[in-house]
TrEMBL record:
One of its GO terms (molecular function) is cholesterol transfer activity. InterPro entries: StARD5/6, START-like_dom_sf, START_lipid-bd_dom. It comes from Corythaixoides concolor (Grey go-away-bird). It comes from the Eukaryota. Gene3D superfamilies: 3.30.530.20. This is STAR5 protein. May be involved in the intracellular transport of sterols or other lipids. May bind cholesterol or other sterols. Keywords: Lipid transport, Lipid-binding, Transport. GO terms for biological process: cholesterol import.
């Protein structure tokens, strides 16, 4: 199924590029000094797709170092939503199957989750870097009893160089996640904007630590 996995990863990347080019229909739901978050109904599942956009005060390489989906990467250190991240299978140099586990959240209303995704990394000619992912099944990752299995639909992050400003990066991210389990929609709808705001805030702190 390596070809299948690669194909799914490619489709996720193409969707990210479509979202990036398609400014229509987004409704703002949260804005802080660090990030603006907007949403629109997902075409992939019965939930929403969320878009986070910010200028992070660091070079694209430093931002990428913090978010890239690799084994023993920095993300588990700074992202409070990511408890554990493991690469289950390397499909190619740029595509891998990964399992992410999350801690309980939202005053424990949301219990620990696990996600199994195919993840693609890509660099563009202008220096933009993309990490894109979508859910898959994998024989080495049967559901585990202590976790609710959630599903990421095509999602990802673009680290985009800001012309003439080598120490600034536009970080554009798209999240569309079915958390699984039986959560009230109101919990889901308030969790994501808060979670994305936290992601950008913690990333900004992490990048400063990396540069220090």
């Amino acid at each position: 199924p390596a070809m299948e996995y690669a194909g799914l990863a490619e489709t996720a990347a193409e969707k990210m590029e479509l979202y990036r080019r398609d400014p229509g229909g987004w409704r703002s739901c949260r804005r802080t000094s660090e990030v603006s978050v907007s949403w629109r109904p997902s075409a992939e599942f019965a939930g929403n797709v969320y878009r986070g956009e910010a200028i992070v005060p660091a070079s694209p390489q430093d931002v990428w170092e913090c978010i890239k989906p690799v084994a023993a990467g920095l993300r588990t250190k700074w992202d409070q939503n990511v408890k554990d991240f493991e690469v289950i299978e390397a499909v190619s140099d740029t595509v891998s199957i990964c399992r992410t586990t999350t801690a309980s959240a939202f005053m424990r209303i949301i219990s620990p989750r696990e996600f199994v995704d195919v993840v693609l990394m890509r660099q563009y000619e202008d220096g933009t870097m993309l990490s894109a992912a979508t859910n898959v099944e994998h024989p080495l990752c049967p559901p585990r009893p202590n976790f609710v299995r959630g599903f990421n639909y095509p999602c990802g992050c673009f680290c985009i160089p800001v012309p003439g400003e080598p120490d600034r990066t536009q970080l554009l991210s798209f999240f569309q996640t079915d958390l699984g389990g039986y959560l009230p929609q109101t919990v889901v709808d308030s969790f994501f904007p808060a979670s994305i705001t936290g992601f950008y805030s913690n990333l900004t702190k992490a990048v400063k630590t990396l540069k220090a």
